[in-house]
Amino acid sequence: MSPAGNYVTGQSQTVTSQGVALLLQGDQQAFQNCNFLGYQDTLYTKGGRTYFNNCYVSGDIDFIFANGTDVFNHSTINMDGDHSGGDITAASTDKKTSNGIVFLNSTVTANSVHGNSVIDPLNAANVNGPANSTMTLGRPWGWTQTGGDASTVFINTILPAAIKPAGWQAWDSTETTVTNGKNGGNPGEDSRYAEYNSTSDGATPVDVSQRVSWSHQLTASQAAAYTTVTNIFSPEGTGSGQYPWYGLGYPSTDTPAGTGSPNPSDPNYSWPAFWGDRNSQNETNNDTTLNNPSGYSDPSWTITGAWDPNAQLAALPVPEPATVGLLAIGFCGMFCMRCWSKTGKP
């Protein structure tokens, strides 16, 4: 289990349990106007597709994690400040899944929950919140798992000064060791990390010049593929109305990458275009792609075809209550506004 603890008792982190606010194992699940409060491991998105619109998520380390395909749209993600050096995400996306965790038009904050009557009634949390340049956008939990390929993308997101200039970090020192027998010491072969238009206030660009070399700054055309939510949640295909990633692939010999024609027969072919060669196994001394699929698919997507979560939410007849939230402090209390699951209950 990952380390966990809670503010209520003032406990430091332990190695015995997780404090999960919400474990998601279904498919096509949509949440709107919901609060998720946690210490560590707030949201465990275990496969399937989940949409969060206008939601608030607060946590400490790796608090949005696992192998689901998740979109956070117009949401606030808060690093609540009990631990410097923490990460927002710990994705473990399957290599055959096009998208992992995606943040659209959202805001990352670094506000302490000290004194919060719900999550910190004993005032045990750090008073000041994370210091500048102490936190990261994510680390690749997928590195530790066979077939894992952590995917996390931030599009048009406001970031606080608490984010380190490097932006991201490796899971551990072994991942960056050339002789590790897995990825030749290159975390880029077991992670898909990218940003587009990260700002400090909605207008001023963040200085990304010191980002880790194995992350990506997307072009406007690459980022545009993420702006339609139904694209992210749709299966691969080349027909009308199908998922658009296929045409963004490129042969590994392109210089610069992405300038040539798509070539699915190339064993190093990767799409979307900007990901480059993959370490396909995470278990052998393999630095390139093996058995690249003709199309990405996710076995946890139990419903085929496109999915429009906004239409799903709009169709709900249930009136919205005034206040809601999900809390994780060693137990789970679930109160959600316009939360709905088509194939699995949260």
Low-confidence residue ranges: 1-5, 237-243, 256-270, 289-294, 327-346
Helix coverage percent of residues? Answer: under 10%
Q: What is the CATH third-level topology name? A: Pectate Lyase C-like
Quickly count the domains: 1
Identify the CATH class. Answer: Mainly Beta
CATH superfamily, by name, is Single-stranded right-handed beta-helix, Pectin lyase-like
Structural class: mainly beta
For the report, how would you describe the main beta sheet?
A: 8 strands, mixed
- Average pLDDT taken over every residue: 77
3D shape: globular
In total, the number of strands is 19
Give a verbal description of the structure.
- With 346 residues, the chain is mainly beta.
- It has one domain (1-234, 304-346): Single-stranded right-handed beta-helix, Pectin lyase-like (Pectate Lyase C-like).
- The protein is 4% helix and 21% strand.
- The chain has 3 helices and 19 strands.
- The strands form 3 sheets. It has an 8-stranded mixed beta sheet.
- Strand 17 (325-328) and strand 18 form a beta hairpin.
- The chain is globular and about 50 Å long.
- Mean pLDDT is 77; it is low at 1-5, 237-243, 256-270, 289-294 and 327-346.
